[in-house]
């Protein structure tokens, strides 16, 4: 028998339904074949899992090596920063040395107006844009004329690289302007044609480490696309990266000055995200990917909590904040899904359970945590019930069933109380307790009331149920009233059926009565009655004692009505039978006159009232 492994990958697979369909009409040979197929499939899946583990481990090792290579890059950046610092200090020293020379020069050279200098700068920028339009076909579509638009850096003879094959696609020129980046490809006739133009705010230029296949390369990321370019000389690549870095720094410095309206309206004018926070948010996706893959859930939750705090306390006007908010929501869903799946494990200990619930609560998923936990506990109760063995004694089985169900409910209450501290979470748990009690009541009805047991057996089963249910009082729950309400209709039905069976016996007593005077047998030596009266009296006493085992205060009217119905039915049957035997009318008259029936009914009423009370 073949097995489709793809069906086992379906989350909605119902094992019981699958086995019922597969082995519904199977014989022993088919069952053995099905078992062998399952074992073979298990070995196949185990082999695939082992190979996946080896492959993932290899990828993890390669990624770790890449991360270790970043240390060298960081050291190189540190050296560049030190060189830049020394250059800056040299510039400051030169500025101080030239200060006196500048003062003396002002005496000789006439001062020019600031407007003249700005005019010269604008003229130079305008000439740059016009020259760009002439040298690059289609550039005017991407770059319109503007007062402050100018070229920051021009990189010639760059090569666009195919990211998959790392082979050169075409020769391009890059024009870095103060607000955008223009990419122009070079035709065979050496004519430049504009191909891409991106806003400086929408792209990121990143350096790439040299490899044997690719050197002097850098990456331009325009989400969701990534482009790789290669420079002929290292100086060209470094010049572009430095120009881009200075340009982005200038944008960050000028941004508060360009938005005075926001400052007036109450926005955080002049505010800038702290570099450490910005770095933290930039590294957020990569860090969470690694931590979740390594199942380091504590660190993952801590990382998300800190990122959420940064997002909530920072202005949403920053693009990185909006992006980080999406990342937090995305990885929160992923982490909740994994933790919830682990929480549904029925073999968890209390410490493990509390740890998983705590992670979900910190991720603000309290409803999800409660839902998964209670579903898991329901599964455990169902599993334990199936493990019970029915040995033929219904009283013993019900006692074991009550012990399992109510003990697990008590343990669940203790675990729930220690983990969910919020008061608003209590209502959901009480609802779950009622559902489990109703499930127990359904099993109880099928096993006890469905078997037509005697009143004594039913009373023993209910007594053991209440005894085991009383352990819930230690955790503040009392389900006695709920169980009585759930079984009330069944007990009434049992009493009515018992009454109906006794009515049939009463008919037999009346029909078999020959109206001969016999001894009262416990009614007194001076009481002379017929045989049916004695039989009816004993039946009524037994009926009263039996139903008193099951009755409660709310059943008082049902019990009294049943006794009255039996007595009335007996009297009617006796009258009917006496008419058939007219020779014995005087005997019947004598019996009724002595008040035997009234005595019998009053005694039964008194017995019933005492038992119910």
From TrEMBL:
Keyword Electron transport: no
Localization terms from the record: Cytoplasmic vesicle, Secretory vesicle
Entry's Gene Ontology cellular component terms: exocyst; transport vesicle
Keyword Transmembrane helix belongs to the record: no
GO biological process, one term: exocytosis
Domain spans labelled Exocyst component Exo84 C-terminal: 281-480
UniProt keyword terms in alphabetical order: Exocytosis, Protein transport, Transport
Annotated family: Belongs to the EXO84 family.
Annotated protein name in UniProt: Exocyst complex component EXO84
Species, as recorded: Rhizopus microsporus
